[in-house]
Design goal:
The protein is α/β, with parallel strands linked by helices and about 190 residues long. It has a single domain, classed as Rossmann fold. It is about 30% helix and about 25% strand. Strands 1-2-4-3-5-6-7-8 form an eight-stranded mixed beta sheet, sandwiched between helices. α2 crosses α3. The protein is globular, with a radius of gyration of 15 Å.
Amino acid sequence: MSEHWVRVNNRLVRYVVKGDGKPIVMVHGFSFNADDWINCCGDKLPGFRIYAIDMPYGPKSRSDHFTPREPNDYAHHLHDVIRALSIEEPILVGASLGGETVLRYLALGYPARAGIVVGPVRVGRIDLGRIRVPVLGIWGSRDNVSGRENMDAMRRAGFRVEVIEGAGHPAYLDRPDIFVKLVLDFLHSVGID
């Protein structure tokens, strides 16, 4: 694992990199930071290069913070970070607020190969019909943060949804082996190996 910093739109952004292969950009939720993705999944995704981005929200993020003025501000920020790192068509993974950010990024039409979201919040406020890449939604059966309405919105949009039994809102941390298996199976099913 290596820690890096890049300046994007006059803000300092921290990111952590691990592995080699196809790029996966991972976006944490509000109460977490980039290190959580590496600690959870860093050694379990062979053939992929993980870029875990410290987003500008949450008490644990070390990147420069900002308060969004519009709902898509974090998605635009994510796009600018990906562009600054010269990552082309990444696989995007986001949890909670990070999942909402990934869905907004995809709905804006920014380049990506696929999206995987874990307990995304405020899904109903996003035009999911604009997303043109494969998307997987993952929930923990004991998630008490992202309500069923978010899961139902993903299903109505035609996206695949999986539930990890016994896991809470951060299902990827509660059951990392099952989470990684779901991710790899999904990527294989859409032709990304």
